[in-house]
Design a protein that fits this description.
Layout lengths: L9 E5 L4 H12 L3 E6 L10 E4 L16 E4 L12 H25 L5 E7 L10 E2 L9 H13 L6 E6 L9 H9 L12 E2 L4 H14 L3 E5 L5 E2 H11 L10 H8 L1 H9 L3 E2 L2 H5 L9 H10 L1
Parallel strand pairs: 1-2, 1-4, 2-3, 4-5, 5-7, 6-11, 7-9
Antiparallel strand pairs: 8-10
Helix pairs in contact: 1-5, 2-3, 6-10, 7-8
Length: about 300
Amino acid sequence: MNQGKHSRPRIVISGASGLIGRALCRSFLDDGYDVATLVRNVAPGAGDLTHLPWEPGTPLDPEVLRSAEAVICLNGAPISKLPWTREYRHTLYDSRVVSALTIARALEALGEEAPFFACASAVGYYGSSPSVALTEQSPAGDTYLARLCTVWERAAKTAGPHVALLRTAPVLHRAGMLAPMILLTKLGIAGPLGSGNQSWGWISLEDEVRAIRFVVDQKLTGPVNISGTERATANDVGKELAAQMNRPFWFPAPAFILKTVLGADPAESLLLTDAHVHPEKLIQAGFEFRHRRVADAVAAGLAG
């Protein structure tokens, strides 16, 4: 255990202000870790967290990372924010690739003393591959998000051999993937998106945090799919949400309408992509999911 001057194990997290980051920080704190977050603006009254200043794209002092058990990078501007203008595509790129590369280069400078690095990625890496179970060995897709994930992961691997690439599925939570769906369902206008038969990756927030903790504890390297074990279609998720909210599920949104309203790339990457992502590496390493069915994950997500 590389604790340096710290009496307790220490974790450094960037992107800690998001849904996953907040839950992950709380999990580590509850287990007695010292948690330091990389932030652009250090505000007074940090509470249980230590805030470390940084600016993605500007060299990060490797010494702030040296004593950590692990460094976890969760940075990424929301892909759900539309439209994807040329300017916002730069934001999507910079928030992921530049952030990961800034941390990776600091870790690379530490050489053999570098902490383990876990960097966010996404199941969007696989693009759309109907009727195929996608494992960590499957190739990258050709959607916009697949190309972005490929560059993102390449940046993270600059850190060296001890890197995990967290290919995360959308989190079924009222503050995550379910947020826009809950609104439509409340209004009574939820229904099939495109055919509705396309496979969607999904994960509960609790299992997302537990899986990241497991990857760090077990030091799993390379790509790791963080996605639920049960194959679920867009209709499965939507119908389950509607049933639990006692609302109808009937209003279809054809693919051409989604592409016209949202833009072709966002519609294809976010809603119409067909990818059954299997968490092979987690299962083989012995990870046990708490929410194995999409119905359980939706219920947990609604409960918050």
